[in-house]
Give the backbone structure.
Amino acid sequence: MNEPKQTFVRLTRSRRGPIARNFRAASLGLAVVAGTLFGTLAITAAPAAAVESGLPTNAMASAVTSSAAGALASLDEWTATADPVAFRRYVSYRTQTAQYAADQLGYAELDMVTAWASTPLAHQRAVLAAMTQVGVPYRTNTSQEGVGFDCSGLTTYAWSKAGVQLVRQSSGQIQNAARLDRSTAKAGDLVQYPGHVMMYLGVGDAVIHSVMRGRTVEIDTISERRVNSVRFGDPTS
């Protein structure tokens, strides 16, 4: 269980203002066109729970979930077929999803794009799997796609999509992970403080997590109260 960390204004307003948000909306339209030209359109709607819950969520939630779903579908296609077109489409969707996440938090897009591109492929898959669930409600003792997650339920779900099985408890997850310094933590690594676990996005204090009851899976930043006491760990090592 986690306590409220910040006012929700920070989550729902991009620091780049309306021009950047309009550009992002336009770029999503371009991605749909690009996907069609590539021959496979992998964009899907946001999880139903994100729409139906009525809970506040990230302003970029729909764009993030759609783009992340496109990335995962393209990655699966490339893995199965080794088709270079599928891989190029994957890189395009991954880049776009990273840009949306950066724009949501006000980080430099290039930093986020580079962090995601340079992390291992399993980490990329875990990050993108988590991103497809932005807006899904927090639910205690739940780890169900499109329905609900608690904090360790989200990390368990995301890493299972990369073929890594985590224990279903936040302290156990970090204890079983290889300890990392903040300077060596990568996108997809775990971030934990007692009672709560998150997934690092590779830049600054950026994370994705299932926050608490009454909230949702959100792109967020580590609480200022916790930023110097969190632990980082790589669940693949």
Summary: The chain is about 45% helix and 15% strand.
